[in-house]
Amino acid sequence: MDLDFSEGHIDGAWPMATEEDLEMYAYRVAGTVAASLLTLSLQHYSLGQDSKSIERIIRAGGEMGQALQYINIARDVPDDAAIGRVYIPSSWLREEGLHPRDVVSRPNDARVTKPKYRLLGKAEGIYRATEGVMGELPGEVRSPIRTVVESYMAIGVMVRAGGSAGSCRMKEELKLPWWRRLIVARRAMSRG
């Protein structure tokens, strides 16, 4: 996958053309990181799981990494557009009568909302499908991983709620307020 956005503009082809491109990109930039971290964690804090269980946990972690990247993409549409990048698949944009150039010039166009929500829906679906696997992680890593995941999911909720105003700061990037991060962390760790 070529992510040279500057060259893609010339012939009209943008790097993120299809949902498959999106999935490949998200796996390469976030899924592999999550899978690698879980591999290291399971090597260090072994619970004596069989190899099939370990593979399933690592696979679920890679999928969760992708989900968190989808939330990043939905959150960062205006920031990415400001530097000429659009990570929403062109095929999704076409369904809304948009081209990536439209997102670059008008990232807050109401028609961009549906593809952003679609990203969040993908993330939420993966979360629901893989959340139970977090309970199988060694205790030493379970709570911290759950805290990260739950924090990202809360950011997704804020994006869906129109996160550019109110309880978040969009100028730098959408972040949970400190008090909300504490609540999310406490809940995640209590589920440990």
What can you tell me about this protein's structure?
The structure is a single chain. The chain has one domain (9-191): Farnesyl Diphosphate Synthase (Orthogonal Bundle), CATH 1.10.600. The chain contains 9 helices and no strands. Residues 164-172 have low confidence and may be disordered. The longest helix is centred in the first third of the chain and has 26 residues, at 19-44. Helix 2 (19-44) crosses helix 3 (51-75), helix 3 packs antiparallel against helix 7 (113-134) and helix 8 packs across helix 9 (178-191). It is globular. It is mainly alpha-helical. The N and C termini lie far apart (38 Å). The chain is 70% helix and 0% strand. The protein has helices at 5-11, 19-44, 51-75, 77-82, 90-95, 100-105, 113-134, 139-160, 178-191.
State the major sheet.
Answer: none
Task: Indicate the percent of residues in helices.
Answer: 55-70%
CATH class type:
Mainly Alpha
Number of helices: 9
Overall 3D form: globular
Do you know the CATH architecture? Orthogonal Bundle
Structural domain tally: 1
Assigned CATH superfamily:
Farnesyl Diphosphate Synthase
Q: In terms of quaternary structure, what is this?
A: single chain
CATH-defined fold name: Farnesyl Diphosphate Synthase
Mean of pLDDT: 86
Distance between the termini: 38 Å
Spell out the helices and strands N to C: HHHHHHHHH
Low-confidence stretches: 164-172
What amount of the residues lies in strands?
Answer: under 5%
Structural class: mainly alpha
